[in-house]
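Example with several molecule types.
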Amino acid sequence: MNERRIQPGAVSKWILRCAQNDRTMGINPVDVSRQHFPSHFPNPMIRINEHYTKLKASYLFVDIAKRVAACQQADPGKSIIRLGIGDVTEPLPPACIAALHAATDEMARRETFRGYGPEQGYAFLREAIAWHDYSARGCFIEPDEIFISDGAKCDCGNIQEIFAIDLRVAIPDPVYPVYLDTNVMAGRTGHPRDGRYEGIVYLDSTPANGYVPAPPATPVDLIYLCFPNNPTGAVATRAQLAAWVDYAKRHRALILFDSAYETFIRDPQISHSIYEIEGARDVAIEIRSFSKTAGFTGTRCAYLVIPKTLTANDSAGNAHPLHGLWNRRHSTKFNGVSYPVQRAAAAVYTDDGRKQTRALADFYLGNAKLIRDAMAKLGFSCSGGDNAPYIWINIGRDSWQFFDLLLNKAGVVVTPGAGFGRCGEGHVRISAFNSRENVTTALDRIAAALK
Amino acid sequence: MNERRIQPGAVSKWILRCAQNDRTMGINPVDVSRQHFPSHFPNPMIRINEHYTKLKASYLFVDIAKRVAACQQADPGKSIIRLGIGDVTEPLPPACIAALHAATDEMARRETFRGYGPEQGYAFLREAIAWHDYSARGCFIEPDEIFISDGAKCDCGNIQEIFAIDLRVAIPDPVYPVYLDTNVMAGRTGHPRDGRYEGIVYLDSTPANGYVPAPPATPVDLIYLCFPNNPTGAVATRAQLAAWVDYAKRHRALILFDSAYETFIRDPQISHSIYEIEGARDVAIEIRSFSKTAGFTGTRCAYLVIPKTLTANDSAGNAHPLHGLWNRRHSTKFNGVSYPVQRAAAAVYTDDGRKQTRALADFYLGNAKLIRDAMAKLGFSCSGGDNAPYIWINIGRDSWQFFDLLLNKAGVVVTPGAGFGRCGEGHVRISAFNSRENVTTALDRIAAALK
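Resulting structure tokens for the full complex:
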């Protein structure tokens, strides 16, 4: 072994010079030097994933909270109604409550106690999903193509791990921040410039395209889509989805389809699942959640579908089934969803559960209609609210100024569109998640404030 | 723009040649070519994270299951007792059951319903942990240094994301496979060779060092330690832990301390937390779980501690607090643990909960003592079982052959040590997680089989 015995910390400048030289030559200096001098590379030390330093500070909801707190402090007696954050307000459906109690009782007795379950989820839940959410709509999805998780946020964030780092990623604007941030963390982007990350292909969702972007002219490899959309509330027609599936086939791209809000679809022409589109099994992963369907935001259950027909290539051109890759990731880094929670999720598919969750969505959609109608009456052009719990309002002015106006004059909190991306400017999002009384009061106050 | 309009799919060989040329020069061809020709790079397509192809197929428990099934099929009437997998068998403590029921009732009423909670966990649980698990042992850990999660497996797997890819990682052998596999997936290793991954510094745990490896001669950046250990059941003395903390300080390294089995420690000289060691707040992250403490393997709750004093550098030498980095990761990719589950975990710290969980650990330790005594009586040298639920038995012969012998002659399933790493060969792990009756029956049968 021709290793030189140099004490760590006392390592001399020549190694640093050589490393610098390597860097100039375009050779990764760490690989080379560490390989040759494993035991004396200068300053071995714990170092961070530097991609995190590219992240823009996520101040949207913190900023909102600060402004709301300041407003409340200035006038402690003021009534403030929150239509900002997309969190549910109604209790869990009785069918889910009964299932939680029953499963808790099972956990109390040795004979029925459950320890580690399958990482992918229990068959009773995977089968209920395959049957009710897919077979019933004519989609062929097998139970073992469904992976139960503790949240759509986790699935949206984790799924990118099984793909190469140098992919070209397409992400809508405005957008749920998790798609973007998790790709930044993984190193798929450059630094932000003028509010956008280098290396990302942004799909503009604007009044001109009805907030449903068409496939880009540039070929991309990985595409995030979300319908019904957060924050715009827009839904894509079958023809629009078919254009995306066709694009993905032509370019050998993959679609990540987030349908966390599908429970709010009422128009029978709108697809609930990407798999209702011919050929989607070959190009799409779908992510769904019980958060909005059954009020599980604090109970935590979701799922991700990977058809076994989906493949991606390695650099030598060999195809690898993504199902096996995700299964490896999921079973290595995750240990399954809490058993009582899986029972509660399965109760959503009972007769009672289906009636109760339908009523729950109808209730929020009732709020949404009131909001949309009231805002339209005030002269604003609106998207969403008919098949989605969000109403996206084209205010035609600075979204933070409009936020301040509604907060101070009406005591109503909305979300400024600029927080969701460059194309969100000029808009605000109003959420339908609240009591009927709060919604009607808020709308009366907004009308008065804008007179 | 000097882009050339070449149709995708029709891209000519010169680009491929240039890319190949770049590769020969040590320049990443994808970066260069994609940057210059974003819209016409040949064959844009979805590609996999190729590090996954380095993973060894994880056949240990699948292999075990196959052999057990074959044995059962050959003799359908045969009684088989499983002392292999480390899953609990006793029901949840009554205090946890009561808390689950009460929290479920809260979720049934609008006034007490909980939606999204803090991603980091509710204050009621973080404060109970800081007080009972740390302050009570003289460790200074603040509640907001504790991140509640749904499993130690998730935390062990996810924490590496906040670190640089080119770190030198030290991992014990034998070992819980998640430490290794998640670093392989992230790209911190080469391919496996002779059963070990290139680039990993293995810490051999052998009879010679009592299964507690000392710090290596080579400087490393990131160190995985687990005490009480899975699979060896070994515990580290304060002096041994202090040597690791000292090493980490000298080399500016970071220790990931997995103490998922601390509830089984009975020797008052053994540290329950790495933070009992002077200076550990500056060099260690700790991971704990309710899985074994309170039988939560199917209920899912754990936590990770990052002191605010911990930092890691970027490549320019600037220090970054790891607390902020992990908080960003955790709040971007995770949405908090189920509210009823957090209430059940908090019940562990009530007077009743503490008595009940203590009794639970005592019960399994009673099994462990029976196993260790019986195996020692048969002439085997054993580790663990006194402060751990695992007994690691030095059998001095091929571990799969011994596995087969016990399965076929005694109808008892153990875990062959070879499945945990090269140094595991010549050993088997016996788990204390079972009923007293099954344990005593299994031990009688093993004694008879080995006569």
